[in-house]
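Hi L., both proteins are below.
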Amino acid sequence: MTARTGADVQKMPMSIYEVHLGSWRKRDREESDGFYTYSEAAHELTAT
């Protein structure tokens, strides 16, 4: 982690992940056929 502080992040590689929300995960509920809303998915995807 210490080595990252002096690194130029604009020139470093980065990982990008794509998620198809319709097949990623469903909630146990009747409305919306169990699919997550974008707000719910954002919360789940960024949770640590």
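That was the first. Here is the second:
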Amino acid sequence: MTVYGGVGQKSRGRVTRFDAATGLGEIMAADGVTYPFHSTVIADGTRTIAVGAEVEFEVVPGHLGRWEAAAVSST
């Protein structure tokens, strides 16, 4: 798997899925790689984000040995 922007670097993408009930969502980076995230990593503290929103995020090692999005913020 190619990590867009590198670990810990800011990347850009679009929210493709978000379930407010569970707090789970996915971001598709500009290169097509999809990264999961939890609402607790939304930077403004709102714990919600619209599907289709353009976002900036960091790629970090996550649970279960997969890459995840962190420090998610709307652009």
